[in-house]
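User: Um, any thoughts?
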Amino acid sequence: MNKYLDIAPEVAEALAAGKPVVALESTIISHGMPYPQNVETALNVEKIIRDGGAVPATIAIIGGRLKAGLTPEEIEEAYEKNTGLVIIETFEERKANPMYTPGVLCKNHGPFTWGKDAAEAVHNAVVLEEVAKMATRTELINPKVQPAPDCIRDKHFYRKHGANAYYGQN
């Protein structure tokens, strides 16, 4: 047994017998296509590989471990989990504080939002969708619009957040 990797029995048997195995990334599930088309596509790609005489080995993190060869149930589960992992990874890469950014938009998906309770999460979803509408309308009016300079963005943020916040505080 590998310390970091679980290999599905079907994949292990194919490897031991010298049969062809095709590795597939779970990004086919979590990026680019809306649900349920993404899961249907992933399962269809696996069928095409099987029909061609090879064994598919979709790879994902399941239960905190890397796994090669997913069941249809794991493929279904991987969509939501991997989308969440991509959100976390993006926040970490951008050094963004999820408490200051309580929602994100993901390609081909509705908003992901959070809050101290369900009501706040729903409120944040409504706000996020309104901001997205404003951004879309701004780009329709001026396709060459540029982001605000960092100094303006920072002024707007820090007047509401942090040790020296002064705007909108109770």
Notes: Strands lie at 5-7, 21-25, 55-62, 65-68, 103-105, 111-113. The helical segments are 9-16, 27-30, 37-51, 72-93, 118-141, 150-158.
